[in-house]
């Protein structure tokens, strides 16, 4: 299949690196931080209790689902307040969380493939999460990063895809969004008028009747190879 791709928008979590190991480590990092700085909070909220508080905070605040940082702050604030700790600890606790959140381990293929893709077309990061490309050390490979928090709505809302296309200065149909999530990334992008590329590392079945990914690969290397073979020459 050959069609012009003049720019790419790229999901981050579970596309460039797996999120599950980060999530598991975050719970422990925060607990260790509380044990050192607010033992009463750590005692009242061991790892499992803090996880339950985080789930409840998510359920109680649907208006903030596009802002994972604010949701995390809300759960930390409640834990500190209920355990009688000073709210002066809120931002330092968040900082400890955020430093650990940006310690990622790339999929084996991802970084080399990303470098190849970024050398070929402009790449914009388009994420519902709160990763920081500069902290992770790959900011120079991206034209920009647009998060759900900054935009005010999360994928698959078409507005976030359209905002990225506008910033790239490329027509919707010539931008390909690349990600792991069948609904939020691929179907969302296609409904918004973009091309959709599914990075399906674990061979999940496609279940969206009436929609098909424009491209599907089990690694990001597959996309880099496709771009090399179907290059549209243009300045950027």
TrEMBL record:
Keyword presence, Hydrolase: yes
Any one GO MF annotation of this record: hydrolase activity
Keywords assigned: Hydrolase
Hydrolase found in the keyword field: yes
Protein name: HAD family hydrolase
Species annotation: Stenotrophomonas daejeonensis
């Amino acid at each position: 299949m050959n069609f012009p791709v003049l720019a790419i928008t790229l999901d981050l979590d579970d596309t460039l690196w797996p999120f599950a190991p980060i999530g598991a480590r975050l719970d422990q990092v925060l607990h260790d931080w509380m044990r050192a700085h607010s033992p009463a909070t750590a005692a009242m909220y061991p790892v499992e209790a803090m996880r339950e508080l985080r789930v409840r905070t998510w359920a109680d605040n649907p208006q903030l689902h596009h802002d994972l940082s604010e949701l995390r702050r809300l759960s930390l604030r409640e834990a500190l307040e209920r355990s009688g700790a000073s709210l002066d600890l809120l931002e330092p606790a968040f900082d400890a969380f955020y430093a650990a959140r940006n310690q990622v381990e790339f999929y084996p293929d991802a970084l080399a493939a990303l470098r190849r893709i970024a050398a070929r077309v402009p790449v914009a990061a388009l994420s519902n999460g709160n990763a920081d490309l500069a902290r992770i050390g790959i900011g120079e490979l991206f034209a920009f990063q647009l998060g759900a928090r900054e935009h005010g709505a999360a994928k698959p809302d078409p507005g976030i895809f359209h905002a990225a296309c506008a910033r790239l200065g490329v027509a919707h149909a010539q931008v390909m969004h690349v990600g792991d999530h069948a609904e939020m990334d691929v179907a969302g992008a296609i409904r918004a008028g973009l091309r959709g590329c599914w990075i399906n590392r674990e061979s999940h079945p496609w279940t969206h009747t009436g929609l098909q990914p424009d491209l599907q690969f089990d690694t990001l290397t597959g996309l880099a190879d496709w771009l090399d073979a179907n290059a549209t020459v243009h300045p950027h």
